[in-house]
Amino acid sequence: MILARLASWRRYRQTFRELEALNDRELADLGLGRRDIRVVARQASR
Q1: Which one of 4, 20, 21, 23 is separated from 34 by 20 to 30 angstroms, measured CA to CA?
Q2: What is the CA radius of gyration of the chain?
Q3: What is the predicted pLDDT for the residue at 17?
Q4: Which run of H or of E encompasses 25?
Q5: pLDDT for the residue 10
Q6: Which segments within the chain are labelled E, that is strand?
Q7: What's the average model confidence in pLDDT over 31-42?
Q8: Contact (Cβ atoms closer than 8 angstroms) between residue 41 and residue 15
Q9: 41 CB neighbour count, 10 Å cutoff
Q10: pLDDT for 2-33, tens place per residue?
Q11: pLDDT, position 9
Q12: Residue 19: how many other CB atoms lie within 10 Å
């Protein structure tokens, strides 16, 4: 259980970092805004 939570947290942080590194234009091309990054990262970590 702890390992699963750790893996989930790592997926969240990796996704968050990758999306955060994109500029606003690149995010818009994906249909996202800066405010959406946390939600998308959370969904990706499940």
Answers
A1: 4
A2: 12
A3: 98
A4: helix 24-29
A5: 98
A6: none
A7: 98
A8: yes
A9: 19
A10: 999 999 999 999 999 999 999 999 999 999 99
A11: 98
A12: 19
Which residue is associated with the tokens 């805004």?
A: 33
- Crossing angle, helix 37-44 and helix 2-21, to 10 degrees? 140
**pTM for this model (two decimals):** 0.91
Query: Which tokens belong to 41?
Result: 């990262």
Residue at token pair 């590194």 = 21
The pLDDT of residue 37: 98
DSSP string over 1-46: -HHHHHHHHHHHHHHHHHHHHS-HHHHHHTT--GGGHHHHHHHHT-
Read off the amino acid at residue 1: M
Tokens 């234009």 identify what position?
A: 25
